[in-house]
Amino acid sequence: MSVIYHIRFNFFNIHRTPMRAIMTFAAAAMCLLCLSAKAQTAEADQMEELKKSHKVVYFGEKEKQAHADSIRNVIERFYVTQYHHFQDPQAPYFLMMSRDATLAMGIGGLVRMRGWYDFDGAMPSNGFIPYMIPIPEDPSARRRLAATPSGTALFFRIIGSDKTLGNFSAFILAGFDGDSDSKFKLKQSYVTLNNWTIGYAPSAFWDQATNPPLIEAQGHTGQANRTAVQVRWCKQFRKGWSMAVSAEFPQSYARADGTNTKAINDWLPDMVAYGQYAWANGAGHVRLSALARCLPYRDLIAGKNRNVAGWGLQLSAISPVGYNWTLYGEAIAGRGIESYVNDLRIARLDLINDATDPGRMYAPQCYGFTLGVRYNFRPNLFATISASESCYRPRHASGTSDYKYGLYGMANIFWNLTARIQAGAEYVIGKRMDYDGAHGDAQRVNLMFQYSF
Which domains does the chain have, with CATH numbers? Predict the structure, then answer.
């Protein structure tokens, strides 16, 4: 226990150090280490083992059997997606494929069980969310033991090629999510046609590949996290360069008081664009993303609708270093983008009332950081350590009980018993600090077992 308390003391006091300078230095070091990245990694070896596990059923008796290379290329396309998250199911175990390898379909899923024990401060939710740490501490809720099948999912994907349409794909992912009732809900549903994506997919502002692996369902407090109906254009260029532009259906949140201000409907899409450079056969990349949005509300004193501009920038990167190491990093900042930042979106803080000008609202500042490192002891055994922070910066919060910042630290280990069976254990620690100096903390141990098919 003395080791745990030592870790807790140092983690909770990290914010008193020049944290931004430390993270800036770490980001610069990551860029330098990227130069030494090798193409072949332990993760790539594990992925090759996974690809060997497929069982293919062919249809179309009159068609000529495709060459083995063509069949492998189709299987590879099940793994090439800009929307895959570490916790998403792997490509399906069983595939149905036309004999000429121009059309393939897979139906798969994931059975996942998570169990956890909260101690020294219990979290009032299944996800570990620093924003929701109780302040003041509730002495009757110091510990909690719970488990959930949330994360269990089913998906369907069809991919193909056509002389007229080119390459196309359709994807549907639904899973059990939520609290003890484990609601079944749609998570993704989209169609890609060459460079275009139309449907319900992770936002272009969310670089999922740069999120360090973890068991806990909520994710790092300072990372982007949003899924939206969108129309996206994404173009791959030579030498690893790519770019994307996305128009996404908005969901802004105005914390109106109903007396001087009122929330109204969104009427303009959020616009996202990014540029990316990838290396090591796509295993590493660095991406710069930008977001622009319109945040509407009604000024009840003036009797008119008003609009506030919101914006955000994000720099994200993942880099394999040698055979065993992988580095992760994200930095996000902006105004009126709280609903895009993992913990802050729970508070609905995109627009808040101006305390000095009744009837007016403004978009407060926020920023977040995430840093992580993964080490593969073997291709099927790896550990991750990461830390994250989310900060909320309104104009007139000094001395109030408003959320100021949240800290999130994590260490875990994963073991792939087979290419499709995985077990893991994880320790998570978090802290919430308010502007009046009040704070709370919590700790959790997670266990996980899952089977992807």
Answer: 2-452 (2.40.160.10)
